[in-house]
Amino acid sequence: MTTSSIIGIDLGTTYSVAAVYRNGHVEMLPNSQSTRKSTTASCVSYGKNELLVGEPATKKFVSNHGNVVYDMKRLIGKAYCDQTVEQSKKYWIFKLEPDYDGNPVVPIKHFGEQRTVRPEDVSASVLKKMVEVAEKALGVKPTKAVITVPAYFNQAQKQATLDAAKHAGLEVPELITEPAAAAYAFTFDKNRLNGKYDLLVYDFGGGTFDVVVVTVDNGKVKIKAIGGDTYLGGRDIDDKLADLIAQKIYDESNVDLREVDKDNSKDTRRNKAKLMKAVEGVKITLSDELETNVYLGDIINKLEDADEIIIRRGELEKACEDIFVKTIELTKRTLKDAKMSPSDIKEVLLVGGSTRIPRVLQLLGDLFPDRKLNQTIDADEAVAYGAAIRAAQIDGVIKADISLTEATPLSLGTDTVGDCFSEIIPRNSSVPIARKSRYYTSANNQTRIHFNIYEGVRPIVDESNRLGTIEINDLDKGEAGSQYVDLTLSLDKNGILNVFVEYNGRTKHMIINYVGVRKSCARSIEQMINDAERYAGSDKLERIRREKRFDLSAILEKIGYRIDKTGLTNSEKTEMQKKYDEVKKWHEQNAKASLIDIEMQIESLRKICERFFLV
Amino acid sequence: VEADTDETYKKLVGVERGTIASLHQKAHELMEELRGLEGGYLTSEQTQESLNKLGKRLRLFSEECMRALMTLDAVDLTGVDTSETQRNINREKRKTLVQTVQELLRHHDALEDRRVQLSTERST
Q1: Are A401 and A454 contained in the same domain?
Q2: What molecular function terms (GO) are annotated for this protein (chain A) (predicted)?
Q3: Candidates B39, B43, B53; nearest CB to A436
Q4: B37 vs A434: CB contact, 8 Å cut-off?
Q5: For residues A178 and A154, what is the distance between their CA atoms, to the nearest angstrom?
Q6: Residue A56 shares a structural domain with residue A122
Q7: pTM of the predicted model, to two decimals?
Q8: Does A432 sit behind a cis peptide bond, omega within 30 degrees of 0 on the bond before it?
Q9: What percent of chain A shows pLDDT beyond 70?
Q10: Same domain, A401 and A389
């Protein structure tokens, strides 16, 4: 029997898990410092004399508050100005500030020195810990790992995860998505390789929510549609619960823990750390019991130990109803993207700790009344399990006829004249993929073409994430439309983008500067898809208007090029030139002109051109 | 005027705007994807994986073309209320559409040849 040299790591928001395929089955690698079986808390404590990672770091929440850093997956690949970053700051016990590039960093005091750490550095420390855990269990230090990321991570977030792995000294042969890993685990572990059926994976974890529709066809696991939110998870439930408890404490004792920004004293921060510690326990207890109590003395020193407040499950459910309903709405939307109804789904797989909440199970039961919700795979370990199987397959240890095809959550493309989005790789396309599109010059004697590369879903680029720019120069001069350039976008197995431009045998390659992407405050996939739905009607009209405006500009270019090259008489030429100047001026001065006005200008040009056989 | 109101003609136009327009779009996408792979920008292994998937999609495309031909074949041109002139128009329309689908099938064959050739080149 053999052991895979590549391990699988589920790098989670709250907990991380490592697993390996050994002696014919997957083994979760145990962390002896953790009380929760194989999981390691994704938490780092920067102390005066030590660096603690995992469970020991969580124990420093109160004594080393401000230097204990966690939840970094919610920040990775994001800009400081991102809306969601602002939302989460409320109950974090560490400070957050922007660096000179506008990226979020955490100021900490480590070994007596004041410095800042980036989310990638914290994730790298967690990954190093996972390597340590694996080394202890396997006897050799692993150098390669298949790491999982949320299905809804954008390009910058995926790249930042790869950077963190590099800092931890890990080579990543493949980055796979968490729900895909869970589906892979289910298919392999439950021996469901034969036959064709559709699964829905509902992955409600600590920091992210993913929902995917998967088709399994004789061992071929293919992602059909992806949905979710990278900022929706158990942590949001914790924040709501913290609000609820803080309100009760205020009603009981007149101490307001929510006023932390006004009163940033050491005591308040320490009390807040104690509150967040209590919240986790309350949430877990309320998944099994109808009510629980919190002793006020456990949170605020000056209050009596015996004073307690009661928290009921109903209160928690009421406070978090909008979060639960949102996951159901996203599930419905993903089914719609996959062109399926709930009855088409054979199994609903539940993954992630937040799926233990009774209200979540009730709402899912209502959506899938004919299906049993499948909780047979371990909610905490399923993702790492799938990653380990994939790792062993890459290593050649598993020979089973099972394959994984992932999909891209956003469309990728470029802007055309008029800022319309020209889609090259559509959303939900299987990866790896490479697509080549041809673009023609839009102006006379144009010698360079400049492409902005975007990820988005709307027909206009205004609200899409700009990933970078590539330009090709020294094009042969000529009439507009006479020269063309081929633009290829390729997504590798990890969903990482490469851009190539070809002209007359010359090729240019673009490396995306993800730091720059973050500076521009990249929008989350969830935000972009919501906006795309909301503005679908007006976007369509705006795109038609912009395309028409481009048509007018193309006609003007053609006339401008041909006016001197055709055999017009002097008077005809003067008449044509006059009309050309008049419309060109109108075009330049009326960027926001309506569709009808543009059409009228085109018509007036067409009439005169037809008379002179010009265009 | 009759052409705009004739049920058979309307049915043929429906096939043209629905099924055949969608086939044109798919043919364009398949070509862009093959051209992307021909660029050699993915690793050999990933190119091979993508070529296999493309092969499956090409087979589906060819089946859709065949289904479109069957749909066109099933359109009844002998309506009792249809004038002889209109029947001729409908016949011509159907002929044009059949030729379009056959052109798409030829396009498919060319793409499949290129795909197989690329697959052979990459595996050697």
Answers
A1: no
A2: ATP binding; ATP-dependent protein folding chaperone
A3: B39
A4: yes
A5: 14
A6: yes
A7: 0.75
A8: yes
A9: 91
A10: yes
Same domain, A339 and A216: yes
Round to whole Å and give the CA distance between A126 and A150: 17
- How many CB pairs below 8 Å do chains A and B form together? 49
Task: Report the CATH number at residue A479.
Answer: 2.60.34.10
DSSP per-residue letters across A523-572: PPHHHHHHHHHHTHHHHHHHHHHHHHHHHHHHHHHHHHHHTTTS---HHH
Which of A369, A388, A406 is where one domain is finished? Answer: A406
Considering the domain architecture, whether residues A525 and A551 belong to the same structural domain is answered as no
Q: Distance between CA atoms of A587 and A593, rounded to whole angstroms?
A: 8
Burial degree of A312 (CB within 10 A; 0-12, 13-18, 19+): middle
Active site members of A: 10, 73, 178, 203
Does residue A169 carry a pLDDT above 60? yes
**A436, closest residue in chain B (CA to CA):** B36
Indicate the angle between helix axes A266-286 and A234-253, nearest 10 degrees. Answer: 120
Res B98 pLDDT > 80: yes
Of B32, B38, B49, the CB nearest to A432: B49
- Look at residue A296 and tell me if it is in a domain: no
Strands (E), A313-386: 347-351, 373-374
Q: Is residue A440 domain-shared with residue A397, that is, in the same domain?
A: no
Residues in CB range of A59: below 8 A, 6 or more apart:
none
State residue A378's pLDDT score.
82
Could you say which of A362, A379, A406 is where a domain stops? A406
Structure tokens at B117: 């050739």
pLDDT of res. A263: 52
Indicate if the pLDDT at residue A83 is higher than 50. Answer: yes
Compute the nearest-CA separation of A325 from chain B (Å): 36
Of the two residues A592 and A46, the one the predictor is more confident about is A46
A280 part of a folded domain = no
Query: What whole-number distance in Å separates Cα of residue B4 and Cα of residue A590?
Result: 39
Query: What is the average pLDDT across A577-591?
Result: 86
φ/ψ of residue B40, rounded to 5: 70, 30
- Region A52-75: what's the mean pLDDT? 88
Within a domain: residue A463? yes
CA pair distance A345, A340, nearest whole angstrom? 8
User: Does A12 lie in the same domain as A66?
Assistant: yes
At B1, the pLDDT band (50, 70, 90 cuts) reads: very low
Q: Which amino acid makes up residue B29?
A: E
At residue A123, does pLDDT exceed 60? yes
How far does the CA of residue A431 sit from the closest CA of chain B (Å)?
8
Name the H helices within A139-233.
155-167, 178-189
Higher pLDDT, A400 or B35: B35
- CB atoms A488 and B39 under 8 Å: yes
Question: Cα separation of A34 and A40, whole Å?
Answer: 6
Complex confidence, ipTM: 0.71
d(CA A164, CA A514) in angstroms, rounded, equals 14
Please give the Cα distance from A534 to A417 (Å, whole number).
Answer: 24
> Which of B29, B32, B51 is most worth mutating to test chain A (most A CB atoms within 10 A of its CB)?
B32
Residue A215: count other Cβ atoms within 10 Å of its Cβ.
18
Residues in chain B: 124
Per the domain annotation, does A245 fall within a domain?
A: no
How many domains does chain A fold into?
Answer: 3
- Listed residue (A278, A464, A512, A284) closest to A379, CA to CA: A284
Q: Are both A151 and A12 inside the same structural domain?
A: yes
- How large is the average pLDDT for residues B67-75? 93
Answer yes or no: are the C-beta atoms of A46 and A69 closer than 8 Å: yes
Question: Which domain covers residue A388, as residue numbers?
Answer: 6-232+321-406
